[in-house]
Every structure is written in C-alpha cells, then in structure tokens.
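A protein record pairs a chain with a discrete description of its three-dimensional fold. The following entry can be read in just this way:
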Amino acid sequence: MTVSGTSGLSFSGGVSIYPYQATAAAEGVSLHVTIDIWYGWAALVLVVMGGLLGIVGSLVQSTRLILVAGGLLALLSIVIFAVGLQSELSKSTLVSGWPVVALFSSNGSFMGYLNYTAYLSLGFWLALVSAITMLVASRRKLEASSRTPPPPLLT
C-alpha cells in the first residue's frame, strides 16, 4: 500500500505485509510489527508445489494431469492468499491511525489529507501468470498428443 499526503508538509510512505512481519515506513521512519499470517505461508507452499509440478509436467510427455494439478495448486494459492489477506485487512488496522483498507482500493482523502492506494505486488501476479501458463500448456499438450501420426512412407 502506498500512502501520500499533504497538510502544509508533504510526505509519502508505504505499508508492506510479508508472512513474518508487517512494515510501515514514512519519511525514513519505519515500524515493524511481528505477525503470523498463516495464509501467506500456506500460499507459499502451494505455489512452490504447483511450480514444481509444472516443471515436472512439462518434462513428462505421457500425461497432462501433472500440469493441470500444478496450475490448480497455483490458482488455489492465489485464492487462499487473497481471501486471507482481505479478511485480515478488514479486521482492523495494523498501525493505529492508518485507515482500514481493502485489496485493490484507494481513497481520495483520509482525515482530510492522506491519500492511499492498496494493491497486490509482483508475487501475486507472477503466481497468476504461472497458473494460467500451466493450464494453457496442459491444453496444448492434449492437442499435440491427440494428433494421429502420419502413415509410414512406402519405400
């Protein structure tokens, strides 16, 4: 989440949430809050397992089921992380004085001077792209394996 504001003075800052801590930083001052986000760890395990299945499934020529399983695990990790983070964000604020935010939200004004934008970062989008790639690859693998071989050449 990025934050900027003006009230005679301008400032900017950000809040980052990791599976092991949340960090709020503004104008060189940072606050670390130790948290246990179980859904972050669960999503990390699922996306790693999905990635490994995707690599193995791309190497094994006989079946597409491994690629489908990898893609579904990656999609499940995305859903678990997004739902878990949204439920955590809607409970309360991590830092007192910050607004309660939702995923993919922004506010034109908070307390008259503070603007914020909340979004998911690069890892979420990479997991989504990898899940889609695995599912598309499993579909293409099915099409390639369903073709009949040409008849043998007469010599």
